[in-house]
Amino acid sequence: MKRSDGMKHVATVAGLAAVYLVAGKLGLLLAYLHASATAVWPCTGIAIAALLIFGYRVWPGILIGAFFVNVTTAGSVVTSIVIAGGNTLEALAACYLVSRFAGGKESFARAADIFKFALLAGMVATTLSATIGVATLAAWGFADWNAFGSIWCTWWLGDAVGAVTVTPLLLLWRENPRIRWTREQVTELAFLFLGLFATGWVVFGKPFHSELKNYPLEYLCIPFLIWAAYRFGRRKAATALCGLSVIAAWGTLHGYGPFARESQNTSLLLMQSFMGIIAVMTLALAAEITEHKRAEERVRNLAVSDPLTGLANYRQLVEALETEIKRFGRNERPFVVLLLDLDGLKKINDAMGHIVGSRALCRLADMLRLYSREMDTAGRYGGDEFVLILPETDAEAARLVAQRISRRLAEDGEEPKISVSIGMAMYPDDGETSNEILGAADRDLYREKGVPKKRFLLPS
Predict the structure, then answer these.
(1) Mean pLDDT in runs of 10 for the chain (460 residues)?
(2) What are 379's strand-pairing partners?
(3) What residue ranges in 290-417 does DSSP mark as E strands?
(4) Spatial distance between the Cα atoms of 173 and 169, rounded to a whole number of angstroms
(5) Fewer CB within 10 Å, N side or C side of the chain?
């Protein structure tokens, strides 16, 4: 390992330990049944996310952070080491199981993997930390064996809910940290979160507690989570879940809301059970909706793109051409159509096979993508013929584009060497309809080739 990589690794481990320590101490502020057992434990989610993102080699950060959390809370140095080992083993087991059976870092991309994550990381792996931790405290006399069951349940549930709420939040924001929202999306998000927080305040706040405390109004928050999942996907849904968790925890701790009981620990257990179930269902719904939207997008792309080259297909080319003709009627800005024909494709297919010939077509398609602006449309008309539509371009600029494509294609270094013949037509000088402009480009192309022209008409 290079020294810079080593320093980066040390910094990552130290940062993880510090974050774990801070989160752990905050979580233990809510430990009412036993000083070392809390129903709110975000550290599990942080540890699992860290291992999935950075790999197993950052486990010392979990061990160090967990040790300092425990040694400054209750027990001895020995018990703190053992409990920290259980916390680390829990995260390592969860990471292994999720990576092996639930897609690893991509575990929140599919609903099936989300349920696997909830089972393996949220329910199975967390039993390790709870069992080792409570048994260690009881064995050294820091906990009563008669209270083993209640302490274990509190410990386990806190870890489990921390895994299913905090891990997706960290992984999904790490996956795509950029924020690209339109003004409409910002407005809708504002209404979404204002509505969610306002509803959370009604359900878990003080103003209406005396009138509504006996009603199961926590379900009023579900429509907002569905809204977030349907309209904004997994990341916003995970964020909304964490925001609601904070509101619910605050209200429950202050004795408000449907989960408030005489025992604060019981109140937190009820609240966390609700949040854990809602988190899994909301994330699964968001993943299903995201997958459905991706499938629709793939179908739309297949409908307008050439399957070999990925460029626009015939239908998309015709639509783009008609659009430019209509745009000229509004702004009277001319555009140019380049018609490109790959020379000698049949000879390449006969001599080297159709796979090499297909690669030659893709090489030309790559050049068209390289020299196309965002407003341009490049597509495969059919066979060895391609079309490049250049809006708001004059003949001289279009000729330079054609020369660059031809020169770059000849110098791309791949075998066999290929060349392209290019015809050009300008709208409206060379025609006023789609057929006329393509026909003019066709005639110019075959003048360059020095062979008799062929008919180039769009099918009616």
Answers:
(1) 78 96 96 94 97 96 96 92 97 97 93 96 96 96 94 97 96 85 90 94 79 76 95 94 94 90 93 96 95 85 80 86 86 88 87 89 88 87 87 88 87 85 88 85 80 43
(2) 312, 387
(3) 335-342, 377-382, 385-391
(4) 6
(5) C
Is the residue at 459 inside a domain?
no
Shared domain for 296 and 384, answered yes or no, is no
pLDDT at 328: 85
Q: Which domain holds residue 73?
A: 3-301
Q: Report in angstroms the alpha-carbon separations of 63 from 105, 315, 382.
A: 22, 60, 62
Task: Provide the CATH number for the domain around residue 376.
Answer: 3.30.70.270
Q: Considering the domain boundaries, does residue 406 fall inside one?
A: yes
In one-letter notation, the amino acid at residue 309 is T
457 part of a folded domain = no
Half-sphere exposure of 247 (CA within 13 A, CB side): 24
Is residue 208 included in any domain, yes or no? yes
CB 62 within 8 A of CB 91: yes
- Cα torsion for 214, 219, 220, 223, to the nearest 10°? 180
434 and 413 within one domain: yes
> Token pair for residue 143?
């906990």
Cα–Cα distance measured from residue 402 to residue 339, given in angstroms and rounded to the nearest whole number: 10
Q: How many domains does the chain have?
A: 2
* Contact (Cβ atoms closer than 8 angstroms) between residue 435 and residue 356: no
154 and 208 together in one domain: yes
* Separation in Å, CA 45 to CA 189, 213, 233: 25, 31, 20
Q: Which helix (H) or strand (E) holds 202?
A: helix 183-204
DSSP code string of 103-171: -GGGTTSSHHHHHHHIIIIIIITHHHHHHHHHHHHHHTTSS-GGGHHHHHHHHHHHHHHHHHHHHHHHH
CA distances from 49 to 36, 43, 100, 117, 141 (A): 22, 10, 15, 12, 33
Closest CA to 352 of 412, 418, 416, 413: 416
Strand order through the sheet with 420-427: 377-382, 385-391, 335-342, 420-427
